[in-house]
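ok so i was messing around last nite and threw this chain in just to see what happens. nothing serious, just curious
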Amino acid sequence: MHLIAQTPRFVIRDFKPEEENTYLSLFDDERVTLHLPNRSRKEHIEIFRKALEGYAANSKLGRWGIFNNSDGEFIGMCLLRNYYDEEGKVELGYSLRHKYWGKGIAGEMAIIMVSYALTHIHPKEIVGVTTLGNTGSQKVLEKAGLTRMDNFHRDGEDLAYFRMVVS
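result:
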């Protein structure tokens, strides 16, 4: 199992195959999914299994679990993925279980993931996208060093767009 990072509070690591239901449980809470793309359970299963394939291929991009160090409890997930087909652009994304909101974990994780991207992926840009109402995630992206740009329109919705240009 590949470890991305470990802090005094949590670890970011590859999911284990047997953690599929743990991963899926994140999307059972409407407070969590409110600001996420609407996906079916089947789509979430496919995404999880594709993440496992990425680990086997030693991909530097991926989707990882965030787990509490003290008790191993599942906190959420984070990801770095290609931003559509725009070469050199990597998107940072994440979702945390509601009980972990407002504790600084997302901000700490985002800083770690930006550093990981800069060190291991060497993108030209790191971007993040949120719904306009997700002000908490907007603050997280700013703490991680991304700058708010003009909103953009996708799939019938205006979204907040953040980016960090890497020189």
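not much to say yet. The chain has a mean pLDDT of 94.
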